[in-house]
């Protein structure tokens, strides 16, 4: 009975200790031990396991500056989702079951950490703030604030980050472990802000408190990289050597030694043979078998510094073929090839394809990939139009030949392709060597490495071609000679291998699959007027777009002129002709050439075009006063027309157009002048001018009126083909009242009168009140400096005009399309500074297409356009 009594007493004591409500010494001791070792410790261990998975799965790219923190990969987190869920349950138990233990706040911190790892940032932020406010453990609060600081930097909430940094800077008693994390997080903050000196300073401080030798090695390597890029080779050398301590991974050791040699000796060495021998030794070292691409790449960069461009290119091509452990390295190799082809040869086509290759090895989210993609957009368009011009020109030329000539050309093309494949096979047959230079085709002229047929790529290629000529392009399969197969046909049937066919193999790597089929080639040649017309329409578009792109984006003015001249010569009826003349005028003006000829052509062929008035009056006034004056003159001209004083009316119209060519009355004045033509000149001239006006005018109401004026002169056949419209014709008397014309059909207008046309030429507009203009005396010179610094090759022009009595505007032009205009707008907001130009004034600026600017100049409703601008361009 005594034993049972003692056992019962123990059970009662244990049961009373399990209570999470009673705050006694026994209860606290029990809950502290249980919460610590049964919950918190295990949860913390599981979180560290997941963090280790993130580190293990991350592939360091030592050719680039290493990030301060290893990025958290969602795939790694997903792989450890069960572990994190288990950790969450354990930490939650520590909070719910052991409320009186001292590990509750620590467990809350772990819950916040789990939320952070799983990208549940709002929950993580709230949990960290809760711990900071409620915890009495100073070290835990510091650790929580440092984690909160990292979260703010992730979210780019720099104001909150600055507040947290300021708060921590005033805290005393921060332990060494927290100081280490604090300085690392500060380095991350400066890294995010692009502050090189801040990163270096914070990491140097972090080294004073680091305990992990591997982490110390990594920080030393980062500092060495950053010092090297700052040109401080002596400091970089010291830190590369320090990075070798602490038993770092082999790759880090390799790069530390490689880069240390570069900054200490290779860059300054005059003994080129010694340097090349150094790279040869690295290349031959069996420990570097997975880093051969890096060695050859670094050798290529060295040869580039010596001005040996041919050797550099050969080495880069070799590096692309070498084995490597980091796929991104291949991307950097192709990126370097693109850079050289662009800078040295201006080979835009090769540059585009090298950048395409680079992107196959670099992840989309990588900043380098984003940079490449932005660079490639223009090149993609360039190559598309160049290749379309080449292809369509060739097809149209072939269409003019006889069928026999077409077949002969196709056969010769196939023969050339066969020879190319044989040459490629011969190139692949070069014997392997342990020397970098022996691996370069430029330094190697050896023959085939084997006489055995299946080891001889040239023999196999020749055999494959002979087989193709006799039997056609057959898949690999058993019994291919069976009688059921019509192998004697000139059009051999290619059997599709089925999943159940065990003998069928994937022959996608068979070089014969690259051989074009004769019938396929001949089928591509157009044989009807419709097909040729389609090809010509595509050519017309490509010549224009290529000319525009070469002028605005690539600054290749001579090539731009060549393409635009081809357009206007080969396609004289093109609707793009007026703008082509305008671009040719701009290009020849920049080249110092004969731009006057395009002013003459515009005046002769398109006298009523907006581009004609632009070249005739580049500095003409077009503000609100000009609008009022032109309106008054318009009323006088119309009154003279109404009284049959046609010559007086024409005189007033022409004088007004010369003085005020770009007002919202311009289109009305032009149409009134055409009406005068109908009274003074021939019926044919009247019709020609109406047709030209309909083609070039942008004001729909006036165009509809012109169509109605044209209808009586059209034949029944022409009227049948005319696109019917339900619009009500305006009476010519309405022209006397501009406001009436503007407000006509207001209820039927769409929600916005502006149109989305990203490919249209754009301008940038800075809107200011008159008093604001007076307070900005240096605006024009500051704009010129801003353009010289940031848009040196853009050939931007600046002008100003009065929009209305309340607003004047500065116009910066031209931009080839919306994207270029938006790039300018973004940089203007971020970087432009001038006395009297406040952020409020800058934020009122906008970009607008020339077509939409005409509409804006008509309505003067800036708020209406800004609504459109915010919805489309931002």
Automatic annotation (TrEMBL):
It comes from the Bacteria. SUPFAM superfamilies: TPR-like. Residues 500-509 have a biased composition (Low complexity). Residues 487-515 are annotated as: Disordered. This is Tetratricopeptide repeat protein. It comes from Algoriphagus pacificus.
